[in-house]
Amino acid sequence: MRVALTVLLLVHGGIHLLGFVKAWGLAAVPQLTGRTVLALSAGATRVVGVLWLAACVLLLGAAAMRVARSPSWWMVAAAGVLLSQALVVLQWHDAKAGTAANVILALAVAMAGATARFEGRAEREARELFARAVAAGSSETVRPQHLAGLPPPVRRWLDRAGVVGKPLASTVRLRQRGQLHTAPDGPWLPVEAVQYFGVSEPGFVWWMESRMMKVLPVAGRDKYVAGRGEMLVELGGLFDVANERGDKIDQGAMLRYLAEIIWFPSAALRPYVSWEAVDDRSAKATMRHEGREVSAVLTVDAQGRVTEIEARRFFGASGALERWGGRCTEWRVVRGVEIPVRGKVIWFLQAGDFEFFDWEITDAESDPATLYDAR
Q1: In CATH, what number does 111-366 get?
Q2: Distance of CA 167 to the CA centre of its chain
Q3: Taking each helix axis from N to C terminus, what angle separates 2-24 and 42-67, rounded to the nearest 10 degrees?
Q4: Over the stretch 164-192, which tens digit does the pLDDT of each residue have?
Q5: Cα–Cα distance, 221 to 313 (Å, whole number)
Q6: 274 and 285 in contact (C-beta within 8 Å)?
Q7: 339-374 pLDDT per residue, tens
């Protein structure tokens, strides 16, 4: 779809050049009569020719911006499509076939613009999240005594991760890719995602992009802020696929935050997280925040790597409590801290295991200096 749309912009834009050539008499264009719905003088005809050239430049420019992966391509394309269709109407006899291309491009532009609006809202929410975290932040450096009293598996994990000697993270930016299922029997959807975490004041905003049937853009945002969760998924940025809030979503979002501290391990030392030994390989983490409490069990291997997370989580806004968790399969040092970089999110349902998200972490940055001015 991405390539096809770019090609359509190129071809459609190039065809507009014929209108300029015809109006200015630069070459013979026998397939065009030059007829217009309004009578035009010779000077006005040349002005129309310049407008055909302008539409050509706008559409070709939008194609070039797509090749360069500029997120603003749709703004240029929108101007090109509007101008193009006005010229098509003016010279309907010759150009009416261009309406079909303009309709297709207009739909693509509308979805791209709506998706940009969706992303802009997620970025505003991330700025607010970071501002809260920075206001509550701490620059304290993790020292060996901070690990004293923790259950052995947790000490082993934090030692292996390399948090000692580094500051407690206040904010985190995470980049992900992978694929997810929307239902146990549904198709896999490719996902590119960015997630923002507040750590000193716990919360997250997760923003993802995908394509349904490799054509229709899907935008999703999951968040946990001030003790409240919210999940929103839109098709083409125009239609809600999911829009869920409520106590069960709050509980699930809070559990998600607790499970995902494996990607910024110093959060395990924050006062809102407490630990209880289960055995030599696992420990129970309990998070208390905004009057709510959730717990999850982390399993740590002999090398100090987190391999599993498991909890009881509500299966959606109207579902029952189910076993839920993750499996980590690969670990790597990212920006000085070892974290899991591959794994799966799984629902352990009575009907069978539902592998919801197959994820890969491509970057994890604590307190990114260039992300937002959160002052």
Answers
A1: 2.50.20.10
A2: 27
A3: 160
A4: 999 999 999 999 999 998 788 888 999 99
A5: 19
A6: yes
A7: 999 999 999 999 899 999 999 999 999 988 655 543
Residues 6+ apart with CB under 8 A from 194: 173, 174, 175, 176, 206, 207, 208
19, two tokens: 């209108």
Cα–Cα separations (whole angstroms), residue 59 to 50, 70, 71, 133, 188: 14, 14, 15, 43, 33
φ/ψ (deg, to 5) at 176: -130, 160
DSSP states of 305-341:
-EEEEEEEEESSTTPPEEEEEEEEEEEEEETTEEEEE
What's this model's pTM, rounded to 2 decimal places? 0.86
Q: Which residues in the chain land under pLDDT 50? A: 373-375
- Per-residue pLDDT tens for 116-141? 888 888 999 999 999 888 888 767 89
d(CA 82, CA 164): 59
Please, are residues 146 and 158 in contact by the beta-carbon 8 Å criterion?
no
74 and 63 Cβ atoms separated by less than 8 Å: no
Close Cβ partners of 75 (under 8 Å, ≥ 6 residues apart): 113
Domain boundaries, the chain: 2-96, 111-366
